[in-house]
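INFO  loader      accepted 1 record
INFO  loader      residues=661
INFO  predictor   begin
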Amino acid sequence: MRNPVSMSRDHVQSDGRTATDAAVPAGPARTPDDGVEAPFLELLARGAPAEAYEQPVLLARAEGRPADRIAALEKAKLLALRVRAELEGRRRREAELSALFETAHDLAGLRDLDAVLQAIVQRARSLLGTDVAYLSLNDPARGDTYMRVTEGSVAARFQQLRLGMGEGLGGLVAQTARPYVTDDYFKDGRFQHTLTIDAGVRDEGLVAILGVPLMLGPHVIGVLFAADRRARVFEREQIALLGSFAALAAAAIDTANLLTETRSALAGLERANEIIRDRSAVIERASEVHDRLAELVLRGGGVHDVAAAVSEVLDGTVEFAEADTAPPEALEASRAEGHAVLHGANWIAAVAAGGELLGALVLRGHAGLDPVDQRTLERAAMVTSLLLLARRSAAEAEQRVRGELLDDLLDARDRDPRLLRERASRLHADLDATHTVLAARLDGPAADAEQEAAARRRLWAAASHLAATRHGLAAARDGGTVLLLPLGPGDTATEAARRTARQLGTAVHEPVTVGASAPVAGLLAHPDALAAAYAEGRRCLDALRLLDRRGDGAAAEDFGFLGLLLAGERDVAGFVDRTIGPVVAYDERRGTDLLRTLDAYFACGMSPARTKDELHVHVNTVAQRLERVGRLLGDDWQGPARVLEIQLALRLHRLAAPTRH
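INFO  predictor   done
INFO  writer      dumping tokens
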């Protein structure tokens, strides 16, 4: 008996339609884009590999679908692959942070040093995707370093290697206290190759090796490695991640050593009971803060939450200080030693990650700090660095997403408005509101190309933060930054430009020049309007720089008649209204002849005597009319700059007036 599904498929095909067509209910005529996302959404939902995304396109070609249908599938495929790549990147970052948090939690309840070190090596190998990961420790008595933990190793000789200081990649790392990486170990002449080490590495089949030092203060106690059996280039983020695991491994070893020293001291002291009670209280406080810090991390607490928790445990005031506000000598000493240092009556614990100083935890007015409490402060600084890194990663991800959306609005104006609106909504941006487009650029001196690039990155970061707080978008573009900001009630493009120039300049500590477009509404209904507005903003920016108004902000309306040339749309009526609007309105209300008097006045070389002959009126009448014009336009209306604009506005008003027969 035939399968019912097969029979149904045969029946549909006998009617001249394919199985794909049969799955769609009869109804109104479908466009080529209808339903193209469905197969890719299903692939995204089940986490299919990248090559599987070709199947819907290949099936459509095999079924002889129209070219526009296939093109729509290709477009949907590319979008789905981008989404998949973004999701993969986020999952990878989440996995890295989760592994670091799990390892930090392991340290809080440290019982078995070997188990913790094995977990660190396993997680490092998994996250870096290498064939092998291993950890070696220094032997001060023999003056060399030896294998302590391996993961993925298959060669016994490799697992038993001992490296002299300066020998091989690991020996060089242990000797110099710096990370080293090679994409082909046997072709790399930087290392001192020995028969023993090369034989062990060859047995294991390793080619690419990355090694980072395990540091306790200024001292190297070992090396953490990740290696592949093929040529490979390790990225900077991977080196920093392995360095973070190395810091955790060093902390685990340090903690284990402290516990060993504590047990030995307790066993050898005559007043064991008293010391046990004292130490128990201290360790209980340390355990309490460890548990509280772990809880803070798990529920998404911030840096100041960590400082508050440590303040309660240490019975003092703990504050987080930015790197540029903490005492520089104490901060550098804490980072170099890997411990909190005493500075006056305060303790300073550096908050650092990957060699970068992120700030410090400052314990105030507590000079007599117990060593275990000091270690608690140092561990709180480590947790703070993890939280700051997590917050930075999230902020950078949001900045990239905002920049990508603005780039799509500027460059890919044929995108689906519904999808653009949904993406903007997730970023709390309303594309249906009235916006202004601002082109911003740094105008401070740059010593070299590297400093200029760093300044541009600071400008982009400051613009992204400003856009996020104002529910707008920002992207790096054309050597500067472009922002799309909503205009509030009563707000003007000029005010937005000046405010943005001031805020960005304060943030980057350099003058920032900003040119703004006229207000833009209906971005999704008029996709070309955004690109035109950006071009207008750039023209205003260039005009400000040519006029040597660096560090200022302006829109086209601020340049008088030059604004007609800078604006994307020639707003003649707006220029006329801004220049002589009060006079036009006065004539219309009162039935006077002020405009005709102004025309005659300028035509007669601004001579009242000749003007009265031209108009056939008394000279006092001319004087009275000109006095009225002055009250309407301001006392400076006869200044050279104003005269030029008024004459141009009169000419444009006359040309725009309907011809009288």
